[in-house]
Design brief:
Blueprint: H1 10-24, E1 28-32, H2 38-46, E2 53-56, H3 60-63, E3 74-78, H4 86-92, E4 105-109, H5 113-130, E5 134-138, H6 145-160, H7 174-181, H8 195-216
Parallel strand pairs: 1-2, 1-3, 4-5
Helix pairs in contact: 1-2, 1-8
The structure holds adenosine-5'-triphosphate and magnesium ion.
Adenosine-5'-triphosphate binds next to helix 1 and helix 7.
Length: 226
Amino acid sequence: MGNRKGGVGKTTTAVTLAALAAEHGGRVLLVDADETESATELATRAGDMLSVDLVTEHRVGYLTSLDQISGYGIVIVDLPGARKSGELSALLQNPRTRRPVIHGLILPTEPAGLDLRVTVRTIQEEVIPARVPYRALLTKVNPHPGAVERARQLQGELRGMGIEVMDALVRRLVAHSEAAGLGMPITRYGGQGKHDAARRAESEYRAVAQEAFGGMLKLPGWKGDQ
Ligand SMILES: Nc1ncnc2c1ncn2[C@@H]1O[C@H](COP(=O)(O)OP(=O)(O)OP(=O)(O)O)[C@@H](O)[C@H]1O
Ligand SMILES: [Mg+2]
């Protein structure tokens, strides 16, 4: 999970996809490579509700050794949003081998001008040259139907520019921030009249998981792996 932009939903997406991957089966490693340690905080508070292993480590030497790790079906790295962070560059191209460390990159981005320009530039200047499979993901989309419609148009415009964008999008829903506030993955949130809203919020990320693990990574057992 990476983008050279802060507050766009990287950590939310990382933790939620980790929860969905664990639920699907297989061991999951979540690597918190952001010094602010927000994924660590979320995962620690979630405790048994999130059955993934957690490593808090941002040193490039560790991150570039992740392609050697064994015993996990999926490794998810939550990157910092800083413009100049070296972590994303190193994962796109290991400085020693000059090859990518990661098998795929999801770039969460809000559908607003400045965020999008950063995302498009990162994809064109760094991700495509590194030949790493990737998907941009529109997040925190205003849930008003007109705004969702505009986000759909934006997906089409980005595709017209040759950018890979997920069909799934994630709306800005209070269920996401409430779950985070309570330290729960959205998959476990939903008591006290919040059940339906939580399941709607979760279902958007279930679609993201299919496109990420099936469509982009072609992992067996996920839709789109053929
Ligand atoms: N779809 C959503 N709906 C509502 N709130 C959201 C959604 N996604 C994220 N948020 C909230 O927005 C804030 C930023 O999200 P998050 O921490 O996931 O972004 P980030 O890209 O990891 O930020 P940073 O760059 O600081 O690491 C958090 O308070 C989170 O709970
Ligand atoms: Mg974060």
